[in-house]
UniProtKB/TrEMBL annotation:
Gene3D superfamilies for this protein: 6-pyruvoyl tetrahydropterin synthase/QueD
Catalytic activity: 7,8-dihydroneopterin 3'-triphosphate + H2O = 6-carboxy-5,6,7,8-tetrahydropterin + triphosphate + acetaldehyde + 2 H(+)
Highest rank taxon of the organism: Bacteria
Protein name: 6-carboxy-5,6,7,8-tetrahydropterin synthase
Length: 287
């Protein structure tokens, strides 16, 4: 017997790439389970699928920075903290360093992060926690099929009570731009290129390199540091891969920021920006 659940959840996270640095990503999760019927004539109650299996995914990968431990990245783990440092780019021209609570990072034994690697990691995490009548599990991770331009962004929200406070997690997000009610794909493309693989940081979280305690910055880095409910977070990343916003980096503020920026270029137009945070959710900004 086979049970399937499409669109079980969406994994919103970032992963470290030796070429691209931290990359915000959003993958939709489809699931199938194989096995025998239990005493309730079910393979597994749908409520348990959504609660138990989704819970494992949420607690292991979602809203983390996934790090390939076999890549060229220095990893130092303490009792409750992890620090990372690496250079990235075609010629290792960019620098990245981060520190934070251990639950903010997902360490995966692989040279790089992709759908197959994360799938294998999650299957290994989920399988031991399934009931005996479930004999096999198949996960499919897939990106949303966008019909518009999109960008990958990473950020951290220190004011958030949940896992969004983790300083490097992210999303793969589409956007729409309208001027006086007319769609403007050329403007969408400009922003998608401007924010390809970007790290967005709030201006109030930016600090001088000397104020970092657990990591070191390189020349040309943007540094940020904050305390949140889960602990202390620090980041140093190449300024060429960063944009500093004069606001928080929630999707509401991102939509508003985009709209105001576009308004400066088109002062006689009514601007509408529809910014997504991953899949199927987001905010609309007007100017």
């Amino acid at each position: 017997m086979t049970l399937f659940v499409n669109d079980l959840t969406v994994i919103d996270f970032s992963f470290f790439c030796p070429q691209r640095g931290p990359v915000g990503e959003s993958w939709i999760v489809d699931l199938t389970l194989d096995g025998d019927l239990n005493d309730e004539s079910m393979l597994l109650d749908f409520g348990l699928v959504k609660k138990q299996i989704k819970g494992i995914i949420d607690s292991s990968v979602d809203h983390t920075l996934a790090v390939p431990t076999k890549a060229n990245i220095d990893i130092l783990q303490g009792d409750d903290k992890v620090t990372l440092e690496s250079n990235f780019g075609d010629n290792n021209e960019h620098h990245f360093a981060m520190s934070g609570p251990k639950q903010a990072v997902c360490l995966i034994d692989a040279p790089s992060i992709n759908e197959q690697v994360v799938t294998e990691y999650l299957v290994a995490e989920i399988t031991p926690q399934l009931p005996e009548n479930v004999k096999g599990i198949t996960l499919t991770l897939r990106a949303e099929q966008h019909q518009s331009f999109y960008y990958h962004y990473s950020h951290g929200l220190k004011k958030h009570d949940g896992n969004c406070q983790r300083i490097v997690h992210g999303h793969r997000s589409t956007l729409g731009v309208w001027l006086d009610g007319m769609a403007m794909p050329s403007v969408q493309k400009q922003w998608a290129q401007r924010w390809a693989d970007i790290y967005l940081v709030s201006e109030e979280d930016v600090v001088e390199a000397a104020h970092l305690q657990d990591i070191s910055a390189a020349p040309g880095d943007i540094c940020s540091r904050y305390h949140a409910n889960q602990g202390e977070f620090e980041l140093a990343i190449s300024a060429k891969r960063t944009e500093v916003l004069p606001c928080d980096t929630t999707v509401e503020c991102i939509a508003d920021y985009m709209a105001k920026q576009i308004k400066q270029a088109y002062p006689d137009k009514q601007v509408e920006v529809r910014a997504y945070e991953g899949v199927g959710k987001g905010a609309i900004g007007y100017a």
